[in-house]
């Protein structure tokens, strides 16, 4: 375990070490690996999803009032990513009217755009 941990510059946690041991035909319970890593100085680095500066968050204008009487008063949008054949990605950007849940417009693009 120690050699696997050191070969990977301390980036492996108990899950990856368990997988590496299984690949070497050594079967060990994952809880046992956790226990050993706690006793010895085998602390893997914590994962951080932070990738840079945080952009400005839009104001909450709806305040959880997801209903409206007149149509086209409140419109929402979201971007959904689709992986196609593990080669490229497509992004779906629908615009929905909250009044009746109808999709008014949509765009499919190769890049993320809100327009």
Automatic annotation (TrEMBL):
Signal peptide: none annotated. It comes from the Bacteria. Residues 2-46 form the HTH-like domain. Transmembrane segments: none annotated. This is IS3 family transposase.
């Amino acid at each position: 375990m120690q050699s696997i941990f050191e070969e990977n510059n301390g980036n492996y946690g108990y899950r990856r070490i368990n997988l590496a041991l299984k690949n070497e035909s050594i079967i060990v319970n994952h809880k046992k690996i956790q226990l050993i890593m706690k006793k010895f100085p085998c602390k893997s680095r914590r994962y951080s999803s932070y990738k840079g500066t945080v952009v400005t968050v839009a104001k909450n204008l709806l305040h959880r009032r997801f209903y409206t009487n007149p149509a086209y008063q409140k419109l929402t949008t979201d971007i959904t990513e689709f992986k196609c054949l593990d080669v490229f990605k497509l992004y779906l950007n629908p615009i929905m009217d909250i009044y009746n849940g109808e999709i008014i417009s949509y765009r499919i693009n190769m890049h993320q755009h809100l327009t």
